[in-house]
Amino acid sequence: MKFAIFGNTYQAKKSSYAERLFSILTHHGAGISICREFYRFLTEELHLQLPASVELFDGDRFEADMVISLGGDGTFLQAASRVGAKNIPILGINTGRLGFLADVSPDEMETTLNEVYDRHYKIEERSVLQLTCNDRNLMRCPYALNEIAVLKRDSSSMISIHTAINGAPLTTYQADGLIVATPTGSTAYSLSVGGPIIVPHSKTIAITPVAPHSLNMRPIVICDDWTITLDVESRSHNFLVAIDGRSESCRETTRLTISRAPYTIKVVKRFGHIFFNTLRNKMMWGADIR
């Protein structure tokens, strides 16, 4: 098998996990390609000795049987944006903190990769959002696995977000922002501002306001084959659009259209992985922390 590897370039203390990963892959005789930024981090800053046979790649110019993301959910999102429509499954090894996407612990690396070689794993397909607008900067990478957020740009007054579903007016949100999230993203930014937790396999989209002026503005869940249109008014005549955390300033006259992307992201999961178990563990449900 051939693996393409993305990694976190900010956690020097986690370098031992990378060494262990390469050791396991070499033992299996795997083909290894490494994102150039991660390779430089490992060799120039951490001074690791990597197998001489590794290949390097830039951007999304790679081919592999499987992608490995070594880091947290942020690293996983970066890997997913590079994978795009390539249809390559992604295995997330969590060396970060709270991991919903990257949920294989470093202690489970060897067992999990043995299972991969034994074809003993499952693939979960996760829906992706697509943004359409006339802003060139935003259209460079208009796809989001987690969420697309519209936010006020500075500390000025809240913005007005005129929202329509399939062309029919929904409401105008007077708020600091609005988050449009996939089920995968429902446990990320959306959850932190009061959005609902949605099971990954449900074909839905959550729309959650950020600090709305009116308390009766509540999150709403819609079908993921519907189209959302946003027109934003701001006193500063611009606002921010964040696509899985990648933010760009946008002019007030820019209309945003959000719909389901024509592809899915495939996530590698171990057999026995249950979403509700992850929720209990990550959210500490039922834990007495007194």
TrEMBL record:
The active site is at 73 (proton acceptor). NAD(+) binds at residues 73-74, 146-147, 176, 187-192, 211. Its EC number is 2.7.1.23. It comes from the Bacteria. It catalyses: NAD(+) + ATP = ADP + NADP(+) + H(+). It is found in: Cytoplasm. Its main location: cytoplasm. One of its GO terms (molecular function) is NAD+ kinase activity. InterPro entries: ATP-NAD_kinase_N (IPR017438), ATP-NAD_kinase_PpnK-typ_C (IPR017437), NAD/diacylglycerol_kinase_sf (IPR016064), NADK (IPR002504). Its cofactor is a divalent metal cation. Keywords: ATP-binding, Cytoplasm, Kinase, NAD, NADP, Nucleotide-binding, Transferase. Gene3D superfamilies: Probable inorganic polyphosphate/atp-NAD kinase, domain 1 (3.40.50.10330), Probable inorganic polyphosphate/atp-NAD kinase, domain 2 (2.60.200.30). Belongs to the NAD kinase family. Involved in the regulation of the intracellular balance of NAD and NADP, and is a key enzyme in the biosynthesis of NADP. Catalyzes specifically the phosphorylation on 2'-hydroxyl of the adenosine moiety of NAD to yield NADP. HAMAP family: NAD_kinase. This is NAD kinase. The lineage of its organism: Bacteria, Pseudomonadati, Bacteroidota, Bacteroidia, Bacteroidales. The gene is nadK.
